[in-house]
Amino acid sequence: MAAVTRGSFSALRVLLTQQYRRRSFGPQNLRLSRTEPAPPRWAASLQSSCRRTLQTAVERRRPVVQFKLSDIGEGIMEVTVKEWYVKEGDRVSQFDSICEVQSDKASVTITSRYDGVIRRLYYEADATALVGKPLVDIETESASELSQEDVVETPAMAREEHTHQEIKGHKTQATPAVRRLAMENNIKLSEVVGTGKDGRILKEDILNFLAKQTGAILPPAPLFQEIQTPGPAPTPPLSAPAGVRPPPATPRPDFTGKDVTEPLKGFHKAMVKTMTAALKIPHFGYCDEVDLSRLVLLRSELKPVAERRGVRLSYLPFFIKAASLSLLRFPILNSTLDESCQNITFKASHNIGVAMDTSLGLLVPSVKSVQLLSVFQVAQELTRLQTLGAAGQLGTAELSGGTFTLSNIGSIGGTYAKPVILPPEVAIGALGKIQVLPRFGPDGQVKAAHIMKVSWSADHRLIDGATMCRFSNLWREYLENPASMLLDLK
Fold this sequence. Notes:
This protein has helices at residues 6-24, 41-59, 164-167, 176-184, 203-211, 266-278, 293-308, 316-329, 375-390, 396-399, 465-480, 482-487, and strands at 64-68, 78-84, 91-92, 97-102, 107-111, 116-121, 128-130, 134-140, 152-153, 283-291, 335-337, 344-346, 352-358, 361-363, 366-367, 404-408, 427-440, 446-459. The protein is of the alpha+beta class. Helix 8 packs across helix 9 and helix 8 crosses helix 11 (465-480).
């Protein structure tokens, strides 16, 4: 557009003044009127030019982009819009707050990626917004879109500790995957120093922060019952009959008399997805029992030695090591099958997962490279995983990469189970509680024996019954003769 000179500006002012007078003081408004001289030819030309310029400006509207709701965490597909901080027509800049959304895990403030004007809000307050769908339309300042990810503010996990107003002035930049990792480990992003570009928090920043939080770790929860050789029973309290253990105190349920329907979320929603995929596998089940009497004596001798080294020696390290030694003979049980069922991969490492009942739900961290560890080293790693699990701080490194799984149902109760394989693994074992039961000895006499039931499940597309049986027999032999297992340590 040509530059506007001082003369043309004066002419435009004269023209507009004449039009204003003509409209305001015409015959319809004044009783007395006077004849206005016709505007000069150059004024009509200028008026036509101005009209064309205004029309062109209207046609050249700035581009409008759909600002979509980005992924705020694995498994979360919908959120509730709790509050809008803008309305249609408001101007926003990068990192300005747009709205606050609420998931089942945390409250998140969505901020703008663009400089522009809000043209449309797609949801009302308290409506459900879908991840990946448009949230607002923004008329941007330029046609080029930003390439960086949506930047959000993540308030504290407990809303009573930090409100939006308290942290409104602090912008925390992190990708959805990093926010999810922080959420799983109960870490406030406002306390983490980002080392990425413009202070962005990286995955390494979260892991380094987690490694420094040793003072906040809770004592580990026991995975296995402590089995003691039967001795004289203590005198029961007068308030309870002999041999009867009082039931644990539980909160009284609140019966409302109405059916309650809630959407699946959190771990329940993740379990639905995992188990739906798992039950597409044709399971083969096999059960057996193991006499752990010799292992009980061996552990009682080694337990004080381990405690002096700061390690709690349960039965689980022996079960894990026996499984690893048996997998050396039956590597097909430590393999994976691709989705097309055309290729099998034999895993070099024995990453044996252990199902843990934690405050966050059922999690399966794995002890890595068990084939290279001794029983004591396995116990050390288990202690670390139990500590992280009790504190709710198990991360991706601990929860991924498993190749074979043992689930300890006996720590809660029960003898037999039908464990479900965790894809892409091909086998899993469920360990029942250890019981002192009567069994016949080699001399034909009845004796007390420490018996544990084991239930195996295997992918019947790869594993036949004979292979599963031979593996279980070898695993049982190691545990019933633990001295041979110690000799075979690699």
